Amino acid sequence: MMDIEKIPSPCYVLDEALFRKNLELIRSVKERAGVNIILAFKAFALWKAFPIVREYIPYSTASSVFEARLAYEEMGSPAHTYSPAYTDADFPAIMSYSSHITFNSLSQFQHFYPQILAAGNKISCGLRINPEYSDVETDLYNPCAPGSRLGIVASILGDVLPQGVEGLHFHTLCESSSYDLEKTLEQVEKKFGHLLSQVKWLNMGGGHLMTRKDYNVEHLIGVLKAFKERHPNLEIIMEPGSAFAWQTGVLVSSVVDIVENHGIKTAILDVSFTCHMPDCLEMPYKPVVRGATDPVPGKPTYRLGGNSCLSGDYMGDWSFDKELKVGDKIVFEDMIHYTIVKTNMFNGIPHPALALWTKDEELKIWRT
Q: Are strands 249-261 and 264-269 parallel, antiparallel or unpaired?
């Protein structure tokens, strides 16, 4: 059990035992379903933890030249790289760091493929397709929203893939279930099934939240095996991000001040929602706070406010069992995926420290 009193504030803390439990499940799915599962840096790029990841999963997916470099230098393997658009300045480096490169449009593929040929690199090229179907309800996270810039729709791609295209890639999910994947695959086969025999691999993107407690792992394995039976020529690649670090750690913060305005008490913290937990404001969603509940009449109730000058940098309200005071620790649950990679420098507010709570129940500070 993590000892919160030993953790400095503010601090992101990855729990090694919980992390390894997720990695074991992901590796099990990979082996039982006969697919390739790789880590998506967009959700988890805490490179000090990569030695642990490599014990289970050796490959990763990148969305930029810097993520591709991270894969090559810190994961120790070339990246499966996809970006909505590559630039002439970045592409030579992208090639040097990548084993697979997926293009978002035919024009990008036609522009850069000659460079791959000229370099003699053995890079496997793919195209991102847009099946125009997704169960994701929040448009901010829906890659298939009407008019989406992400992926090529079937009416544009046609019946024959360009020479040099060895794979197809789709990404339609976000913290989704195996049943959402199953429905997506029906649309992929309906709109792009005639192209699947022309390629060597199909990347099913991310959003497969297989480490969530209510996720039906057996159904997922069944869906993947059935798809492979229908398309035995294809290597299946999946690149979840959140699933790797789902519920594996916390953000520890402290109360710095308590202010009151017309009966509303706000506990101002040494962290910021807009700087350190931006998805809470973007989605939006209300995170779980250890020892707190939704408002209960008669209980001490507070807004939790971030330490930035953005007026909307708060979430609330929460009720606690006792009055908060300056110095009290506030622990936000499940704050390892997407939070660390999105932490920003708005207002120059310091980043939380990065730490590991080891399987031997010791605190290892990685960075302050």
A: antiparallel
Q: Please give the backbone phi and psi of residue 333, each rounded to the nearest 5 degrees, phi first.
A: -80, 155
Architecture of domain 4-11+249-335+338-367: Beta Barrel (2.40)
What pLDDT score does 134 carry?
87
41-66: pLDDT as tens digits? 999 999 999 999 999 999 999 999 99
Closest to 172 in 3D by CA, of 133, 215, 217: 133
Cis peptide before 143 (omega within 30 of 0): no
Task: At 140, list the tokens.
Answer: 């901010």
The overall pTM is greater than 0.90: yes
Is the CB of residue 313 less than 8 Å from the CB of residue 221?
A: no
Residues with Cβ < 8 Å from 5, sequence gap 6 or more? Answer: 329
Query: Is-contact 61 80, C-beta < 8 A?
Result: yes
CATH number (3.10.20.310, 3.20.20.10, 2.60.40.1940, 3.40.50.2000) of 34-245 reads 3.20.20.10
